[in-house]
Amino acid sequence: MSYKQKTYIVDMFLMWPVCMIAIYLLFDLWDIWDLAFFANMNGFLKFIFAAVAAFFSALLLLIFFLNAYPISKNHLEIMTELDKNGYTQRFFELSEKEINRIISAGRVYKEYRFFAMYVIFQADGYLFSDNVYAAIDSINRLNLKDLLTFLKKIDKNSFLGFFDVQMAICDELNDPFRAEAVMQDAAPYLQKEYGKSVVYDMMINEVYTLYYTLKGDSDKAMECAQSCIKGDDPYRSYIGNLLIAKVCLKCGRLEEASERVDAAEKNAVNQLRKQALEKMRRDIERVKAGNTAI
User: Fold this and answer.
1) In this structure, what DSSP letter does residue 33 have?
2) Which burial class, exposed, middle or buried, applies to 78 when counting CB atoms under 10 A from its CB (0-12, 13-18, 19+)?
């Protein structure tokens, strides 16, 4: 199911009952139920009529709101592309265009959740494309003060994602000093949010895994990576195996790293996960070819 389809289904689920209640209230207020057309209807038939009318009303309103306003229309287009095809050139073009629209319209803080989300996704996408300096340019549009003020309470997924991307940049640069600076900012929030959500925990474990590999503590890094895997959970298995592969790569255990990537591939259910695996395989091949900067 595509992002667009999921959006319509979720929004319809929320809007349909609201429209149904509104129809009942308005019909009572205007005495419409007393008109001849409804006079012979029993309560069940009136309910069916209201349900059908509410469904089409909700659908029309949803189509209008998702297409009439740039923030809604553009968001749907960006996220549909990301969900369907992953980090593509079209995604970068769409996200950059929307980021620039928000900036030029002076709506960065009014639409900060969307602005930050696109910047974080875009920076992550550049890392997938081995373009670390483009990732830095993109993520530098955000700062911790604004994230705390405008984002932390409404979108913790993106808030934690900011630190995840920052640490991944440190990893790409192989810069332990930069990693230490990122961790000083991140640690209080990582500790506070750990254990509240599987998704949060996986991001937090990734931040710590990359941090400890950069600090040269491979045992601690491996412990963080392995803690992701729990039972047969496919998402946890995917993240855990990919992080273990990262640690193995840093330690020069290239065959084990490749085996872990193969294990993660079993749960690569979308294009984004497949792109992460492709990135990891490229890194392994570069090390095998003698580039020890990874």
Assistant:
1) G
2) buried
Of all helices (H) and strands (E), which one includes residue 258?
Answer: helix 254-265
- Chain-centroid distance of CA 130 in Å reads 20
Give 270's DSSP letter. S
Instruction: Find the length of the chain.
Output: 294
| N- to C-terminal Cα separation, the chain | 37
What token pair was written down for 104?
A: 């030029």
Q: Which amino acid is at 152?
A: K
Tokens of 221: 């890094």
CB atoms near residue 188 (< 10 Å): 9
φ and ψ at 289, to 5 degrees? -80, -5
pTM exceeds cut of 0.85: no
The two structure tokens encoding residue 167: 């640490």
CA 116 to chain centre: 11
Contact at 8 Å (CB) between 280 and 242? yes
Spatial contact of 200 and 157, defined as CB atoms under 8 Å apart: yes
Q: pLDDT tens digits for 184-230?
A: 999 999 999 999 999 999 999 999 999 999 999 999 999 999 999 98
Rounded Cα–Cα distance for residues 36 and 30 (Å): 14
